[in-house]
Amino acid sequence: MDVRTSLATQSYAQARSAAAPKPGAAEAGFARLAGSFAETLAQGEQTARAAMTGGADPHALVQALASSQLAVETVATVRDKVVEAYQEILRMPI
């Protein structure tokens, strides 16, 4: 066996293990994102309830509604991109 070939295969194996994704990293990131989204919506609902009973000022209500709207639009945009990517994968020839 050629020494250069052996060195190349060792380097490839090291680079491959270094570039391998960490198990559970994507799931943890998605869980954190989903938790943040749910928390934002819950805070918006809580502020809206407080505003209806006179416990919050209108400015806080407007801020909460804007934050909730931004969160929902962001999730919808991400969902659309995921669906688009999935459809693109389905169109790929085998």
From TrEMBL:
The keyword Transport does not apply. Residues 1-22 are annotated as: Disordered. Residues 8-22 have a biased composition (Low complexity). Belongs to the FliE family. This is Flagellar hook-basal body complex protein FliE. Keywords: Bacterial flagellum, Cell projection, Cilium, Flagellum. GO terms for biological process: bacterial-type flagellum-dependent cell motility. It comes from the Bacteria. GO terms for cellular component: bacterial-type flagellum basal body. It comes from Tabrizicola oligotrophica. It is found in: Bacterial flagellum basal body. GO terms for molecular function: cytoskeletal motor activity; structural molecule activity. InterPro entries: FliE.
